[in-house]
C-alpha cells in the first residue's frame, strides 16, 4: 500500500513521495516512456493539424453543450436506453444503488473509470453490500492493494513489478514470480469468473456520440467489451463534457486520444454501445443506463475554466510534467493528478485536502501545453487559479509582503540598483561561507534553501555590463 496518506496536508504528502525510494524507482522506470511513444505517434501523422482539429471540435462542443446533451439524451432514449441526470456525485451513487436494488444486483464488474473514482462509487456499492470488482488490470492490482489510481491512464504506474508480485502472492496465492505473463494469466483466470457471475457492468465513457446516442469506451484489454456486454445491466457514468457531435468527430478524438495516451495509432478495443440488447440480438445488456454527471463541471464553465472541460483524459500532460515525475499521482491527493488535476481538482465537488495548493505544484515550464492534444493552455489556467487566490485574499502573508517589496523596488530604478547591489553583496558573503552557492538563506527565505542551493547574484548586473559596454563602444568611435 502507498505510504502517502491522501488526507495529510499537501506538503506532508509531497515530502513522503520524495522520500519513498520504491516510488522513485517506479517513476524513473516509466518516466519518459509514454512521452517518447506519443511524440513518435504524433510525428507519424500531421500531429499539429490533428490537435487543431480536435480543439476546434471541442470548442464547438462547449459552445453547444446544452443542445448536444439533449440530442444525446433523445437518441439514447430512442435506442431503448435510460438517461439520468445528476448534479452531484452523491446523486450518482444514489441512482446506481437504486438501479442495482431494482435489478436485484449482487455483484458488479467495472471497466476503468475516472468519473466513478471521482465520486467513490465503489465504496457506496460496497457499503450497500454489493461486491465490486475492477477489471482493468492496473485498476484490479490497486483494488487488491486498497489504493486509488495514481495516473489517468496508467493507474498502477507508481508500483514496481516486485510490488505487484507481492500483492498477487498475498491476495491470489500466486507462486513467487516476476514474469508479467504469469501474473497476467492469474489475473485473467480470476477475472473471467467475475465477468461470468456479474449482474451489472459499470464503466465510464471516453466519449459519447450525440447524433447516434452511442457511448464509446477505449481499452487495450477487452475488459470494457465484457463489462458492457456480459452482465444483464450496464450502467455508464459520464461527465457532461464527454461529448462529441458526430461519428466523424468520435474518430477524430479517438485518434488523438490513443496517440497521446499510449502512442498507439489505435487501441486494441473500441467498444460502442447505443442501447440495450434488441429482441433478436444474441448478447448485450437487457438494461442500459447512462448517468450524466455535473459534480462541479458547470462551476468550471462559470468560473472561467471552461477550457479544462475540453480535456480528453489522455494523461500526456502528466507524463511530461517535471513535478508529476518527481512526486507521482498520490501526492496530489486527488483522483486527478498532474497539471490537469491541479486545474480541475480545486473546482470539482470532491473532498481533496489542500486542493487550493495544487495550482502551485507547477514550474509553469509549459511542457504540458505543448503535449496536450487539445492545446489546453494549462499554465495559464494554473496562473488564473493563483490570481483568483490572490484576489480572494488566500495568498500567504509572507508572499503578499514579498510582492509589495518587489513592486516598490521595481518602480524606482534607483531602488532597484541599490537592492541589487545589497543583494549581490549579501549573497556573495553567504556563498563564501557555503562554498560557491548559498546553502542557507536567512528566514523567511530559508524555505528555498531547505531543498536547493541559491546561486549568488552576479558581481556586475546586466545593466552595469551594458552601460560599460556602451561606454567602450563610444570610446572606440
Ligand atoms: S489536459 Fe490535455 S494532455 Fe492533459 S490529460 Fe487532458 S487532454 Fe491530455
Describe the overall structure.
There is one protein chain. The chain folds into 2 domains: 288 residues, Rossmann fold; 80 residues, no CATH class. It is 52% helix and 10% strand. It is built from 23 helices and 10 strands. The strands form 2 sheets. Strands 1-10-7-4-2-3 form a 6-stranded parallel β-sheet, sandwiched between helices. A 4-stranded mixed β-sheet has the order 8-5-6-9, with helices on both faces. A hairpin with a 4-residue loop joins strand 5 and strand 6. Helix 4 packs across helix 13 and helix 17 packs parallel to helix 19. The termini are far apart. Iron/sulfur cluster binds next to helix 15.
Mean pLDDT: 94
Query: How many separate domains?
Result: 2
* Unreliable runs: none
Counting helices, strands and paired strands, the structural category is alpha/beta
Question: How would you summarize this macromolecular structure in one to three sentences?
Answer:
The chain is built from 23 helices and ten strands.
Distinctive features:
477 residues, alpha/beta, Rossmann fold, six-stranded parallel sheet, four-stranded mixed sheet, 52% helix, binds iron/sulfur cluster
Present the secondary structure layout.
Blueprint: H1 10-19, H2 21-30, H3 33-43, H4 47-63, H5 65-78, E1 82-86, H6 89-102, E2 107-110, H7 114-118, H8 121-127, E3 131-134, H9 137-144, H10 161-172, H11 180-197, E4 200-203, E5 207-209, E6 214-219, H12 223-229, E7 233-239, E8 243-244, H13 247-261, E9 269-273, E10 287-293, H14 297-302, H15 316-320, H16 322-327, H17 338-344, H18 367-371, H19 378-391, H20 397-410, H21 413-434, H22 446-449, H23 462-476
Helix pairs in contact: 3-13, 4-13, 10-11, 17-19
